[in-house]
Design a protein that fits this description.
Helix content: 25-40%
Shape: globular
Number of strands: 18
Structural class: alpha/beta
Order of helices and strands: EHEEHEHEHEHEHEHEEEEEEEEEHHE
Largest sheet: 9 strands, mixed
Strand order of the largest sheet: 17-16-15-14-8-13-12-9-18
Radius of gyration: 22 Å
């Protein structure tokens, strides 16, 4: 069957996420497997066009992977008639103007979350894409991770009975940068540069909760800056003005209560960097990035509170592993293939800019809740998008 090539402009691939997950493990991996398979038996290969602010970094990246097209000019890249998709993994602050330019050039647009720094910008992008008639999508990688896919399988199969609550723990200690190099870029800790864990992680929790358990009706959150002084990539101390931890309670449609802690100031004492525990009347589950364990109602032990005696059994040993039952591909790559099919053959892709704006809305509500010290009720954005 026919094999065609689709040009993909990739802006921001010199960063960690854009480089490793989107360029190497998605776009280049797709080409290594022979392209994206289509419904008619054909395939689509991707021709990456690298864009960024630093020519030396772009040249080094292009040389490393044998990529022939790169430029420091977004205007030049957008002028390529064979490039139908624009992808953006830049810092959030740069996203709205670049994506606006790509939409004006008639490109289909696929972006990292959050789609904008605030709801106004996110809604503007959604409207512009709709008016221009271009395909648009936002990355929602957590939904395609093995652990979350197993968890969704349990939800769809009715394992939990009536779901009561969801508890999530995410985070790890990000070094301050003085005696050990930080694992995240310094802009993440400056509010003036679009940083902050609430804006970074609440969009993730929005699509996870709403895809698996129900629509978020209200938010109560506390966003704080625990580490107020950090050291940047050049060894210069700076004031950390963005929140580095967020503690949120989300009320979901149907009465489910979700509590999720997000922190770059926590040392990990769990099996994975993110874990969700779901408790229902018929059973419970704990899901991470890859694994998922369950405890059914009929297999639930009878704990008895007695602080005077040591526990003589391991509570984690009383849970069962959920089997894979399928081969799980890279979460980012799976969604890239979905978006390419959406562009080429109009296959379904529900993760559009309207959905992305919803995540920004919840993050904004969380920040407002923290600032005002109160519960924030959410409304629908359907009329706005």
């Amino acid at each position: 069957m026919a094999v065609r090539t689709l040009g993909v402009i990739m802006n921001g691939v010199t960063g960690r996420m854009g480089h490793r997950q989107h360029l190497v493990r998605s776009v280049l991996a797709i080409n290594e497997q022979g392209g994206v398979p289509l419904g008619d038996g054909g395939r689509v290969l991707l021709r990456p066009i690298l864009v960024g602010r630093t020519p030396a970094k772009l040249r080094a990246l292009a040389d490393e992977y044998g990529i022939g097209d790169w430029t420091a000019s977004l205007t030049e890249a957008l002028a390529d008639p064979d490039a139908q998709i624009y992808f953006d993994a830049q810092v959030t602050q740069a996203r709205v103007p670049a994506v606006t330019q790509a939409i004006a050039a008639g490109k289909h647009v696929y972006v990292e979350k959050p789609t904008a720094e605030d709801l106004t910008g996110a809604l503007r992008l959604a409207r512009l894409a709709c008016e221009a008639g271009v395909k648009n999508g936002v990355v929602r990688d957590k939904l395609f991770l093995p652990g979350l896919r197993k968890l969704k399988r349990l939800v769809d199969g009715g394992f939990f009975g009536r779901i009561l609550s969801v508890r999530g723990e995410f985070g790890y200690w990000v070094f301050e940068g003085d005696w050990q190099a930080a694992q995240r870029p310094s802009w993440n800790y400056r509010a003036e540069d679009g940083g902050g864990i609430t804006l970074d992680m609440f969009p993730h929790w929005t699509y996870v909760l709403e895809s698996l358990f129900g629509r978020i009706d209200a938010v109560f959150a506390r966003s704080v800056t625990h580490i107020e002084r950090r050291t940047d990539e050049e060894g210069k101390p700076y004031d950390a003005t963005a929140d580095d931890a967020a503690y949120g309670i989300f009320e979901l449609d149907g009465g489910v209560i979700a509590q999720i802690n997000s922190s770059w100031c926590v040392r990990v004492n769990r099996d994975e960097l993110v874990e969700f525990q779901v408790d229902g009347t018929d059973g419970s589950a704990v899901a991470g990035l890859r694994d998922c364990r369950v405890q059914h109602r009929g297999m639930t032990p009878k704990p008895v509170w007695n602080p005077d005696l040591p526990a003589n059994h391991g509570f984690r040993d009383q849970w069962q592993e959920v089997p894979d039952n399928e081969d799980f591909d890279n979460a980012f790559k799976v969604q890239w293939e979905m978006f390419v099919r959406h562009v080429v053959e109009d296959a379904p892709f529900p993760h559009d800019f309207g959905a992305g704006a919803r995540g920004v809305y919840v993050a904004e509500a969380g920040l407002r809740s923290s600032a005002e010290g109160r519960r924030i009720e959410l409304e629908t954005l359907d009329d706005h998008t």
